[in-house]
Amino acid sequence: MSNASDSDCISQNTDTYRVGGWGRPYFSINPEGHLEVHPNPNGDCRVDLYQLSQQLEARGLSLPVLVRFPDILDHRISRINGAFAKAIEEYKYGGRYQGVFPVKVNQQRHLVEEVVEYGRAWGHGLEAGSKPELLIALSLMHDTDGLVICNGYKDLSYVETALLGQRIQHTVIVVLERVEELDLVFEASKRLGIRPVLGVRAKLSSKGIGPWEDSAGDRAKFGLSAAEIVLVVDRLKEQGMLSCLQLVHFHIGSQVSNISTFKNALREATRFYVELFNMGAPMKYMDVGGGLAVDYDGSRTDFHASKNYDTQEYAYDVVAAIQEACDRAKIPPATIVSESGRATVAHQSVLVFDVLGSNQIDYALPNAPEEDAHSVIQELYETWSQVTGANIQESWHDATQAREEAQSLFKFGYLSLRERARVDRLFWHCANRIAEAGRTAALDRPGEPGRDPNFVPEEMEDIEKVRSAVYYSNFSVFRSAPDTWAIDQLFPIMPIHRLNEIPTKRARLADLTCDSDGIIDHFIDKDDVKDSLEVHALKQGERYMMGMFLVGAYQEILGDLHNLFGDTHAVHVRVGPRRRSNGASEPPESQTSNGSELGYHVEHVVKGDRTDEVLSYVQYDAEAMVERVRHRAEDAFEQGNLTLEHMGKLMEHFEKSLRAYTYLSV
Ligand SMILES: *Cc1c(COP(=O)(O)O)cnc(C)c1O
To answer: 305: which DSSP letter?
Structure first.
């Protein structure tokens, strides 16, 4: 293969998988045709994901593996904070920005620790949506002026913990989501003699759109209506505690793909802020919630898998709206808080998995039928042998008609099983040849006047459906990407090697579960979605590895144990030398092992679940299971049904499987 054609293929594949859209600035294809990660886009360290996956396997971490890149997280946090800093400076806004990370989006300890570490310089804090998450926030935040914001349903112990937390972590803000929580606040505050810092979550009339639209509006689960907010103000005043109320919060839902939705919500929310200030509350924080979207399909549109704005534009709009409201009301500029979860952590995780096989057999090219072969076979063979770029549609019609005819002939006993199989094989070859002819014809007329080079007859889509294979993949949708199943969310998916070859097949991806929903048949596309993905033909004896990208938000914790597939291994790959436990740094580890300087190292390894661990979640005791099977085996041995050798093998398999990773080994 010449270099020129390699680079042509690479640029074509960059386009096919839209890497230049969703992948920028972290992912690209390198000259070897491997997917490459730039964990720190400002530096020059590059991680060859295919090579890394092989090195992980050499360490005994078999696929599937979730690879996290803390440097990407660092870059995301800087990006959000940098965007607000820039907007504040350009607009000469008098207030500051203090973001928080909503822990619910990804609670893994290593990750939250990294958020705190990278956020320290920016005063970036944490948001808790439940008592367990508050415990995480209080235990991990130290040496930082970041905020702790407490949302979600609260009981007395949640509120008391928050108030006490104020004494070790200076700003803990309790956001009232329901009026009844006020009584808990009064009680806790009296009991402990600590004055709380309070916020209210406003139920806006402006709604989001898309899958999360019900997070705001009259039907929203959380938030106080205008009437309830006034009630809260009056009751706080009665108790002499109006000075505790300092924050207004709203959250219009996740993945807000249209910037105008934010603008509307901001207009309304800042009115709450100003009015509360004028009613006597010493307002200080305007919290604009989450919703900052991720461009999963790279289209930069308001399609639900995308967004029609960037982080900088978002920051400009938020700062401008709040500045305008405060200026107009002649009140001090608010400290701006945002709670971006998805946009902070989605990019830093990649799930790498391998394909175990395909449902498609590549049948040998058909031979000319014998004189006495059934006429339907003769016709189909003729169709196949006469396909050209000029008769694609006609050939396709002839082929489908012949196949339908063959199916009904078989049903009524006029065609044998062998004959029907021959028709199926011929039909499949017709589809391939027609698709190929279509592609060549499209390439041959790029500039033909009045003709769209991307035009494909509608039937061609049916052809791709017929041609599309199922690739069996070593992961569980329910464990690793539950939102693809629950809400049809799209994630970019692509092979991580052989990208210097043009993929010649189309496939849907079936997971390991025996659930017919455990299949991915929606993929990102230029516009809308496609129902199969371009993939390479599998090669005998060679692994085929793929990556699912931007999976760092929500997927890990929403995932479940369907069919008892457990947590995958997770590794943290960080740029720079490894820090020794004594504080000194080591050269990057691959330098010591093979002399090549890679510039990154594996920092944490979180082993995935073993089968016995997963079984214990559903109350099985592995030891007891082994005992029971051993008893059965002894019985069978006594009855002469099992040899000692087989008993030994059975017990070995049983015990080994209990200690093994729940995924398939290849
Ligand atoms: C879930 C949630 C967030 C995070 O939203 P993203 O869309 O992931 O940024 C922020 N705030 C609250 C109150 C939430 O419930």
So the answer is: T
